[in-house]
Amino acid sequence: MTNEPPSIVTSNPPPEFLPANAFDFIPDLHALLLRVSREELELKDVDHESSHIRLKMEKARAMVANLPDVDRSLEEQKKEIRDLEERIEKQRGMIKAVVEMQIVKDIIRRKGGAE
Q1: How many domains does the chain have?
Q2: Cβ–Cβ < 8 Å for 41, 32
Q3: What's the predicted TM-score (pTM) here?
Q4: CA-to-CA distance for 69 and 60, rounded, in angstroms?
Q5: What is the CA radius of gyration of the chain?
Q6: Element (H or E) spanning 33, and its range?
Q7: Which of 94, 73, 72 is nearest to 5 (CA)?
Q8: pLDDT tens sequence for the chain (115 residues)
Q9: Per the domain annotation, does 7 fall within a domain?
């Protein structure tokens, strides 16, 4: 293992949160299917009546496609997680080593005794 920091893929800043209803097309689809099953809507009109649902789905696909790192493979993501976990462990070890240094112990003891 080297002392070099792990390579971490950086991406653009995260996008604004997706709207809460961005993927909420199931109720619309359900309502459309109910209308068809109750014969309130003729089959020839389903294409026209479902256009707003298709538009919602297309917008949702576009939002997902624009999320950062969506093109990264699962293995790339797992590797980044492993690298970050290793980095955290190294940092914990360094913090522990610093806390164990006599000069730090003296400073902590003086601060504790002064209050």
Answers
A1: 2
A2: yes
A3: 0.51
A4: 17
A5: 28
A6: helix 26-37
A7: 94
A8: 444 554 555 555 555 677 778 888 999 999 999 999 999 999 899 999 999 999 999 999 998 888 888 889 999 999 999 999 999 999 999 999 998 898 888 888 888 755 4
A9: no
Does residue 103 lie in a domain region? Answer: yes
Residues 62 and 77 in one domain: no
Cα→Cα distances 94→5, 80, 86, 90, 103, Å: 14, 21, 12, 6, 15
State the amino acid at position 83 in one-letter form.
D
Structure tokens at 64: 């997902």
Residue 48 tokens read as 């026209």
Tokens of 75: 């293995």
Determine the Cα–Cα distance for residues 68 and 19; give it in Å rounded to an integer. Answer: 16
